Structures are given as structure tokens and as C-alpha cells.
């Protein structure tokens, strides 16, 4: 068992998770939060963009939730494997 390899894979997953959070923040920053204040028919393009952004944000929220769970469980598994190897090495 190579703990360094597992930690590198977990580090890559954490980097992917951070990138996903940053991308979600980027999309959320480009939303128009004041669109509900106007009641204009010229806002159709903005409204469709808002709907697309909302769908992307929903997908990213699900991805972030599941990826966070995977990273936490993987870190717990790595810790348990390292503890087992350390305990088994002390037995011999």
C-alpha cells in the first residue's frame, strides 16, 4: 500500500472540488440579482440566461455535494489504512 499515491489522488480530488466551487462562484457572480425589480419585455434574453445559470448552479451544487462526500470518505479510508498498517507494523 502506497499512502503517498492515495494522498496524491485525494489532493487531485480536492483541487477538482476547489475548482468546482470557484466555477460556481464565477457563474453566480455573473447573475443579475436585480432582474426582479424591472418588469420589461426587453429582459427576455437576460431571463433565459438566468435560467441557464440556475440550471448550471443546480448541477454544480449536486456535484460539489457528492464530491465533498467522496473526498471525506476517501480521507477517512486513507487514515484507517495508515492506522492499520502502523498497528500491524508494531505487531511484528
Overview features:
single chain; 92 residues; rod-shaped; mainly alpha
Structural summary, described in words:
Helix content is 82%, strand content 0%. The chain is mainly α and 92 residues long. The chain has one domain. The two termini are 17 Å apart.
Question: Poorly predicted ranges (pLDDT <50, ≥5 residues)?
Answer: none
- What gap, in angstroms, lies between the N and C termini? 17 Å
Tertiary shape: rod-shaped
The biggest sheet amounts to:
none
SSE string, helix = H, strand = E?
HH
Summed up, the helix count is 2
Structural class: mainly alpha
Report the radius of gyration as a whole number of Å: 21 Å
Helix and strand arrangement:
Layout: H1 3-29, H2 44-91
Helix pairs in contact: 1-2
Q: In summary, what is this structure?
A:
By secondary structure, the protein is mainly alpha-helical.
